[in-house]
Amino acid sequence: MIRRTFVGFGLSVACIACGTWQRVGAPNTPQPGVAVTQLFDAATIYDRMGLFVTAAPLPTISTVRFLAGPTPDSTLAVFALSLANHSLSFRRDGNEFIAEYHVEVAFRTD
After folding, report:
1. This model's pTM is above 0.70
2. Are 99 and 88 in contact (CB under 8 A)?
C-alpha cells in the first residue's frame, strides 16, 4: 500500500515537473525559435557580458577596465581588443605572412 502511494506520488511529481507553466503576471514567453537563435549568437552573449561588440565588415570584441593609479588622483585604463580571425588578411613575403593593421584608441574626458 505504501509502495503504491509512493509510486503514484512520484509519477504525479514527474508529470507536473515536465509540464509547461508560467508565473502569474509574467509577460508572454518568446517564441522557441527566437530563444534558440539568441543562444547561438555570440555577439548577443558578449553584449550581455558587458563587452563592446561590433559587426561586419570587421567584427571586434573589446573591453575597458579602470584601475587605481599610483597616486590618488590618477586612473589606469586597460583596453583589450579581439579581432575575428576570418576578417584578417595576410600577404606572403618570402617565407613569412605579413599583415599590417592600425588600431587607434582615443580617451576623452566628457
Report:
1. no
2. yes
Per-residue pLDDT tens digits for 78-106 = 888 888 877 788 889 999 988 888 878 77
Is 2 a member of any domain?
no
Contact (CB, 8 A) for 45 and 37: no
CA-to-CA separations, 54 to 33, 72, 97, 110, in angstroms, rounded: 24, 34, 26, 22
20 found inside a domain: no
Q: Is residue 86 part of a domain?
A: yes
Count of the separate structural domains present in the chain: 1
**Cα-based distances in Å from 62 to 24, 58, 75, 77:** 40, 12, 19, 13
**Domain range for residue 43?**
25-110
